[in-house]
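Exam revision sheet. Question 4 asks you to relate a sequence to its structure. Input first:
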Amino acid sequence: MTREKIREMTMQLIYQMDAEGNFDYTEITPMEEDAAAMNKKQALAVLEAVRSNISDIDLMISENLDKWDFSRVAKTDLAILRTAVAEMMYVDSIPAGVSINEAVNLAKKYGDERSYAFVNSVLTKVSKKIGE
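Answer key, structure tokens:
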């Protein structure tokens, strides 16, 4: 399974956790295909970062929204942003540029026609703020 596919499945699990209101990935019953992704080191590192640091991740996103309220961010875009910010802040093995690029690709696939630009803008600001 490619890193891109693992990241996509991780984002989908983060979306599911948000929908269920519980960011403890160990309590989510993944689909069979997702279970394989959860066993990958990359996915587990991101899911653990989200579980342990969701407040800090959301604060980082919120602080880097330009004239936009956190509560108005589309749930799909939010899952993409959470995935990328978790990678950027807590997973040293993934360069920020890779996280941003992959997030933009996910936004093109799952978001609306403006999502990719929004995601790119927020993540570029996050990257500068954390010194990547």
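Marking note for examiners. Helices lie at 3-20, 32-38, 41-63, 75-90, 96-110, 115-130.
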